[in-house]
Amino acid sequence: MRERAAVDDAGTELRWTVEPGDTVTVVHVLGDIDLSTEHEFAKAVRDGLDRPSPVVVFDLAGIAFMGSVGLRVLIDAHHEAHEAGRVVRIVDGSAFVRRIMEVTGLGEVLSVHHTLDEARSA
């Protein structure tokens, strides 16, 4: 596993690690996803999608804030994976992410799970 981090001028930080696997790759993301960290979040998502496993899980349990840019990146990842016959799953382990998924209705579109264990075994 390798860890990457980005800190912008305002001190907003986004950290991520990739846990590769034969059947499931997990991308753990910590921090805030907003305009200043969108590029780094997109790199984290790309790193997960570039792995050969048929399932990619984005573990957002450590996300304190996620703006619309983060949602767009997840939707794009979902569409790309679907077109390739793969699956993207989201862990909404933080109350903030869970609420965003409910309010936007994306919980009905994306494969969203409350724990990493649920997402791995779904």
UniProtKB/TrEMBL annotation:
- Pfam families registered for this protein in UniProt: STAS (PF01740)
The STAS domain is annotated at 14-122
Give the matching InterPro entries: Anti-sigma_ant (IPR003658), STAS_dom (IPR002645), STAS_dom_sf (IPR036513)
Q: Which PANTHER family match?
A: ANTI-SIGMA FACTOR ANTAGONIST TM_1081-RELATED, ANTI-SIGMA FACTOR ANTAGONIST TM_1081-RELATED-RELATED
NCBIfam families the record matches: ant_ant_sig (TIGR00377)
Q: Which family does it belong to?
A: Belongs to the anti-sigma-factor antagonist family.
Put simply, this protein is called Anti-sigma factor antagonist
